[in-house]
UniProtKB/TrEMBL annotation, chain B:
<comment type="similarity">
    <text>Belongs to the 4Fe4S bacterial-type ferredoxin family. RnfB subfamily.</text>
</comment>
<feature type="binding site">
    <location>
        <position position="117"/>
    </location>
    <ligand>
        <name>[4Fe-4S] cluster 2</name>
    </ligand>
</feature>
<feature type="binding site">
    <location>
        <position position="147"/>
    </location>
    <ligand>
        <name>[4Fe-4S] cluster 3</name>
    </ligand>
</feature>
<dbReference type="Pfam" id="PF14697">
    <property type="entry name" value="Fer4_21"/>
</dbReference>
<feature type="domain" description="4Fe-4S ferredoxin-type">
    <location>
        <begin position="135"/>
        <end position="164"/>
    </location>
</feature>
<comment type="subunit">
    <text>The complex is composed of six subunits: RnfA, RnfB, RnfC, RnfD, RnfE and RnfG.</text>
</comment>
<feature type="binding site">
    <location>
        <position position="56"/>
    </location>
    <ligand>
        <name>[4Fe-4S] cluster 1</name>
    </ligand>
</feature>
<keyword id="KW-1278">Translocase</keyword>
<keyword id="KW-0249">Electron transport</keyword>
<keyword id="KW-1003">Cell membrane</keyword>
<dbReference type="InterPro" id="IPR010207">
    <property type="entry name" value="Elect_transpt_cplx_RnfB/RsxB"/>
</dbReference>
<keyword id="KW-0479">Metal-binding</keyword>
<dbReference type="InterPro" id="IPR050294">
    <property type="entry name" value="RnfB_subfamily"/>
</dbReference>
<dbReference type="InterPro" id="IPR016463">
    <property type="entry name" value="RnfB/RsxB_Proteobac"/>
</dbReference>
<keyword id="KW-0004">4Fe-4S</keyword>
<dbReference type="Pfam" id="PF04060">
    <property type="entry name" value="FeS"/>
</dbReference>
<dbReference type="InterPro" id="IPR017900">
    <property type="entry name" value="4Fe4S_Fe_S_CS"/>
</dbReference>
Length: 840, 184
């Protein structure tokens, strides 16, 4: 090692195999200092200007940015940020042609400079020596520095290497013809570069730093030697001019005599190569706080008037560079980014300068002729002699042509640095490098596909496994479930049996469910109603008297109005109502007696029964009260009278329903626990509603009116349908048919109240109502078939008779539609009942 | 007596070798036919079922058992050629008359048309579609093998097979050079 360093210090330079000596063409662009250009109209800053992932965009369209402000934030592996090259407005963020031979669009930030060129706040480091390794690496990272020699490898990754670095090699060779960007930079900013080198030395602590410069740049060599004088660990080494000595591996071989093994990186053998431009950017970032926003670009070629180097802001369109330097294009002008050997022809000049753009070459047809036709290989082996990587270009060429990719791998195609020396020397003008590039791309694609296929296979197998597992689980679940179900069913059956037993044990005191229902009902009736029967009876008698008077009065009034038919009917209705009220009163009294009988039997049960009885009594009382209310109220039209009659009838029915319903529940419970429970709940709700409905039909309408929205309407329809079902079951099992009548009336009344709503509002509700009505009809039919047409039916028939007629005048006053619908529904219900009666 | 010793010697040798062979048969047991694995790596793993088998591996097994090698349209002629080399048979044109160099495609769901029926999710052999019932579905382009299997079950025909977009990584150089000629 010591020996090697001594040798290097003595100025020993090794040699590389192959290499060519193309004309330098560098003098024309080194006559002038690096020029500053006027600000372009717009800057197209590509988010990806390096090898690795894009940064994460942190600016947005329309935002004002300052010079040096970060546009992206590093995220993920090898991602470095880009910065605003000048202050201005972000006019757009969109994919733009990228600096790539394909010019495939790459997401770019388009900045319209405001001409101010205002810097953002800079944080220069005054004492870099005080910075820790990580802090320094972070500064380099955040400054967006990527290799400026051509590859664009993120510098912070190299600077943060964990491998021991023996030699830091500074690449100032610039071997490609035409390009003088590094040469000019060294001439003008040698101190800055040396400062950058010292920062790298601080990070990597190499034993020796070697600056390799080709001997065709005497000015640069002098400048660098001058600048590096103070630092003994920096050696400026002059290397002979041969292309491609500037290749990383070639330069290492030239300066240290060591070879980087195939497939490994220089750091593996303790070497690290940095370009002078990169080191200058590091210096700028650390000592001046300026991120990488500009670079030196050589603008040259015979079509350029003012050939030379310029400081180009990243994102400056190539067209702007050409225009500023005086550009007189020839027909079929080619503009090459990079040098003539490794550069590529740009598909468009509206591409922004990126971090790796070192040269723009606009040659005329003499200096860079169009390639001639490819001729047959004559096996002269000139290419093999020229190859700096000691490959066999002609073998590779044949394998590439025949797409024998495994053979290409065997012949180390991936050690080819694509320098183009073989194509340059080929007498048959075979574009060898292009063949290798295509072959490399194919191989990479195949490898990518292989990886993808492997992953697809994994995912496919994982999925298969998952499906099998799921199926197994499903089967297991099926096996387990029936057992669980049977347990639950047993329990349900047992419960049902117990309930039936308790029911048969004591008829008066029904099950707890019935009690609960009764309690709920009792609550509904309100606390102000007293259970004292005698008082109620007295009140009732008084009311009856009143009612009679009012009826007479009303009949008179109606007579005055001159509606004879209606008068008659309403009188009949009133008579019926009175009869019913009496009946109800009797029923209430019976109930109270039943209460007293049942009381001594069982304390708890008796209490429950009492509650039920009380509830019924109250209901009855309410009904009678209502009757009087309805009658006494100076509602002089027939509607009120009829409504009162209906209300009374319903109140009575509801009272009976309470009893029957609990029975029905008992019966239906064992059939289906869940269903019955739901039905019971609904039935309970219905019973309550019925009580309310009895109070006032208009109230019911009011209640349903706010139920504007669809869902509630549909829910109501469903509830109604279910109530009907429950009623059906009950009708099948017991003799008294009143509930059904009741529920029919309800069903009739409800859809009617829904109709105006639905006509205003939603179709669905109407449909639901229609279904509910249809069900009501069905229920009525069945009921008619099963029972022996009790008096109640007649009653309700009478009611139904009375109503449509009495409704007629109302319709003119009120909602026409609702009335008509109601009339039709009721008429239908009547018809059905009559049919049922006929049958029975 | 000599004969007896010879028999014992030979018998014991036979026993020893037999044990060694028996042990080796258990110890170095090959789970599956190695040729199947080789064929499987050549197949493109799109799991598309266009060969008539439910996935690439079943087809690999079928080839190992003597089925035709030209039933893989996604693999194209290249796959047929590789299979022919491996199996030592003649390369044939693709059985369905498909193009020799198939265009790589990926599924694309027109998301505003998707009704969230999950049928494509169930059809995807590599779980490359994400979504939930009544939620929009989308394709993980990186995982999609372009097998077409999701197109058919879609009730609203909102899945397109789009050719894979060219990126800088997949872009290939055109065969034209930038030679430098001597200017004297």
């Amino acid at each position: 090692m010591e020996k090697l360093i001594d040798q290097i210090k003595q100025g020993k330079v090794w040699s590389i195999p192959g290499g060519i000596h193309p004309p330098g063409q560098k003098l024309q662009s080194t006559t002038q200092a690096i020029a500053r250009l006027p600000l372009p109209d717009k800057l197209v800053v590509s988010l990806k200007q390096h090898i690795g992932a894009n940064g994460k965009l942190i600016v947005e369209k329309g935002q004002q940015v300052l010079k040096g402000q970060a546009l992206t934030k590093p995220s993920g592996n090898w991602s470095v940020p880009v910065h605003a090259p000048t202050s201005g407005l972000i006019s757009d963020i969109c994919p733009m042609p990228s600096a790539h031979p394909s010019a495939l669009p790459e997401l770019s930030v388009i900045i319209e400079p405001d001409g101010e060129d205002n810097w953002c706040e800079l944080n220069p480091v005054t004492d870099a020596k005080a910075l820790s390794h990580d802090e320094l690496v972070d500064v380099i990272h955040q400054s967006g520095i990527a290799g400026m020699g051509g590859a664009g490898f993120p510098t912070y990754v190299k600077a943060d290497t964990r491998k021991a670095i023996e030699f830091l090699i500074v690449n100032a060779v610039e071997c490609e013809p035409y390009i003088t960007a590094d040469d000019m930079l060294m001439r003008e900013h040698a101190d800055g570069i040396i400062a950058g080198i010292e920062l790298m030395q601080q990070l990597l602590s190499p034993q020796l730093t070697i600056i390799g410069i080709e001997d065709n740049k005497p000015d640069a060599i002098a400048a660098m030697e001058q600048a590096a004088q103070h630092n003994d660990s920096i050696i400026v080494q002059t290397v002979p001019t041969v292309y491609p000595s500037g290749g990383e591996k070639q330069l290492i071989k030239l300066l240290t005599g060591k070879e980087v093994p195939s497939g490994s990186i220089p750091a593996d053998i303790g070497m690290l190569v940095q370009n002078v431009g990169t080191l200058f950017a590091v210096n700028q970032a650390v000592h001046e706080g300026k991120p990488l926003i500009e670079r030196v670009v050589t603008v040259t070629g015979n079509t350029i008037h003012k050939q030379g180097n310029v400081w180009a802001l990243l994102g400056t369109e190539i067209k702007h560079l050409l225009d500023c330097q005086g550009f007189s294009p020839v027909p079929q002008q080619r503009v090459v980014m990079g040098g003539p050997m490794m550069g590529f022809t740009l598909p468009t000049v509206r591409i922004g300068v990126v971090k790796t753009t070192n040269c723009i070459l606009a040659p005329d047809h003499q200096e860079l002729a169009e390639p001639g036709d490819e001729k047959a290989c004559i096996r002269c082996s000139a290419c093999a002699d020229a190859c700096p990587a000691s490959l066999l270009p002609q073998q590779l060429q044949w394998f590439a042509k025949s797409k024998e990719y495994d053979k290409l791998n065997e012949h180390n195609l991936f050690d080819c640095i694509e320098c183009g020396a073989c194509a340059y020397v080929c007498p048959s003008e075979i574009p060898l490098v292009q063949y290798y590039r295509v072959a490399k791309a194919e191989i990479k694609e195949q490898q990518a596909e292989q990886i993808k296929a492997e992953r697809a296979k994994e995912r496919f197998e994982a999925r298969k496994e998952r499906l099998e597992r799921e199926q197994e689980e499903r089967q297991n679940r099926h096996k387990r479930k029936p057992a669980a179900k049977s347990d639950g069913e047993k329990q349900k059956v047992a419960d049902a049996l117990a309930r039936v037993k308790s029911k048969s044990d004591d008829k008066d005191s029904k099950s707890a469910v019935a009690a609960a229902i009764a309690r709920a009902k009792a609550k509904k009736q309100g606390a102000e109603l007293e259970p004292d029967n005698s008082e109620v009876a007295k009140e009732r008698a008084a009311r009856k008297e009143q009612a009679r008077k009012y009826k007479e009065q009303k009949a008179l009034e109606q007579g005055e109005e001159g509606v004879d038919k209606d008068d008659k009917k309403s009188a009949v209705a009133a008579a019926i109502a009175r009869a019913k009220a009496k009946k109800a009163a009797q029923a209430a009294e019976e109930n109270t007696s039943a209460e007293t009988d049942a009381a001594p039997k069982d304390d708890k049960k008796a209490a429950v029964a009492a509650a039920i009885a009380r509830a019924k009594a109250k209901k009855a009382a309410q009904a009678t009260e209502h009757q009087t209310e309805a009658d006494s109220a100076p509602v002089d039209d027939k509607k009120a009278a009829v409504a009162a009659a209906i209300a009374r009838a319903k109140a009575k029915k509801a009272a009976q329903a309470a009893e029957n319903q609990t029975e029905a529940e008992e019966d239906s419970a064992p059939v289906d626990d869940k269903k019955a429970a739901v039905a019971a709940a609904i039935a309970r709700a219905k019973a309550k509603k019925a009580a309310q409905a009895a109070e006032n039909q208009t109230e019911a309408e009011e209640d349903s009116a706010p139920v504007d929205d669809k869902k509630v309407a549909v829910a109501a329809a469903i509830a109604r349908a279910k109530a009907k079902k429950a009623a059906k079951e009950q009708a099948q099992s017991d003799d008294s048919s009143q509930q059904i009548n009741d529920s029919n009336d309800e069903a009739d009344a409800k859809p009617q109240s829904d109709v105006p709503e639905s006509s205003e509002d939603k179709k669905k509700a109407a449909v639901a109502a229609a279904i509910a009505r249809a069900k009501a009809k069905k229920a009525a039919k069945e009921q008619a078939q099963s029972d022996d047409s009790s008096q109640q039916i007649n009653d309700s028939n009478d009611e139904a008779d009375a109503k449509p007629q009495s409704d007629k005048p109302e319709s003119s006053e009120d909602k026409k539609k609702a009335a008509v619908a109601r009339a039709i529904a009721r008429a239908k219900a009547k018809k059905l009942q009559q049919e049922g009666n006929d049958k029975s | 007596m000599t004969l007896f010793y010879a028999l014992i010697a030979l018998g014991s040798l036979a026993l020893i070798f037999g044990l060694i062979l028996g042990f080796a048969a258990v110890r170095f047991r090959v789970e599956s036919n190695p040729i199947v694995d080789q064929i499987d790596t050549i197949l493109p793993q799109t799991q598309c079922g266009q060969c008539g088998y439910p996935g690439c591996r079943p087809y690999a097994e079928a080839i190992a058992n003597g089925d035709e090698i030209n039933k893989c349209p996604p693999g194209g002629e290249a796959t047929v050629k590789k299979l022919a080399d491996l199996m030592g048979v003649e390369a044939k044109p693709l059985a369905g008359g498909e193009q020799a160099d198939p265009v790589k495609t990926v599924a694309y769901i027109r998301e505003d048309e998707c009704i969230g029926c999950t049928k494509c999710i169930q059809a995807c052999p590599v779980d490359a579609i994400v979504g939930a019932t009544r939620q929009m579905h989308t394709v993980l382009i990186d995982e999609c093998t372009g097998c077409d299997l999701c197109v058919e079950p879609c009730p609203v025909d909102c899945i397109d097979m789009l050719p894979v977009k060219e990126t800088k990584q997949t872009w290939k150089w055109q065969l034209n050079a930038i030679p430098v000629t001597q200017v004297d």
